[in-house]
Amino acid sequence: MIDLKVSQIRYFLLVVEHGGFHAAAEHAHRTQPAISQAVRELERKLGEPLLEKGAKIQLTPYGEQALPMLQGLVDHHDRVGEELQRLARHEVGQLHIAAVPSVASQLLPALLEEFIRDYPQLDITVQDGSADTVLGLLKARQVDFGITSVLEPLDEFRVDPIYRDSIGVVFRDDHPLARGTGPVAWNQLTGYKLIRNGTSRLLEHTEAVPLLAASQLYVSNMISLLAMLEAGMGVTTLPRLAVPDERTRLRFRPLGRPALEREISIVRPMRRSLAPAAALLERKILEASGHWQQ
Q1: 3-state helix, strand, coil in the chain (%, to 5)
Q2: How many C-beta atoms surround the C-beta of residue 62 within 10 A?
Q3: pLDDT single digits (tens) 151-174
Q4: What is the Cα Rg of the chain in Å?
Q5: How far is CA 271 from CA 135, 140, 152, 159, 274, in A?
Q6: What CA–CA distance (Å, rounded) separates 55 from 41?
Q7: How many domains does the chain have?
Q8: What range defines the domain where residue 44 resides?
Q9: pLDDT per position as a tens digit, 14-46
Q10: Count of H-run helices and E-run strands, the chain
Q11: CA dihedral sign of residues 150, 133, 92, 121
Q12: Are residues 201 and 253 located together in one domain of the fold?
């Protein structure tokens, strides 16, 4: 394979465009011998002369056929270089993230709105799902990073905490628990129909284990779960962030004795760099996380 230097091709194109080595040297701010040497070296690599010998610049038959190809090579090089620079400047590119639904619906919208406004050429995909779903997408390399609660040690991933969220009981406004305020003790939930959900794993190894074992109903979809709570089918345990304010009939009371929290983190591969656009979004989220907790 011929190892062609773009600079040598550019000098040859300048010689043809300006009709001589002297004019090409002036345009390129180089010496005429340097331009002549570059063209000779290009001809040596190609194995054929591009210019006829003599004072007048005239293409050889080979040069006439090679000229559009060499021009196309330089044009392609310049286009690729410009795209790479735009990618580094975050003007173009794709990024894929995954987040648990509460983060995707409560924390990300305002941040993403500003991010998209500042970088309108970026193509962003957000997938939401349970903590296990987010981790699965990360392991399959289908997303650049995830925002989720970490339920087990992740040796192959870097974990940066960004938000702490209290775990509580969620119920309809006419439920007996709505008569009180403040934290709810675990033993106060005995006798109530508990609906398990994807975040119930956060209660493993706690005093809630007997309550989980007695539960007959598991609902994985958050929209369906909230609808069942509004229908008065029972109570559930959720992080505070997972209960939208617009669900006006639902009430939230934190669990106490002992209190529980969920830690939300940015999770990304340990030994793999992020694409420029993904790294920028990660940095924006880390900067915003200080305000989220206030």
Answers
A1: 45, 20, 30
A2: 15
A3: 777 889 999 999 999 999 999 999
A4: 32
A5: 16, 15, 19, 12, 10
A6: 19
A7: 3
A8: 6-88
A9: 999 999 999 999 999 999 999 999 999 999 999
A10: 10, 10
A11: negative
A12: yes
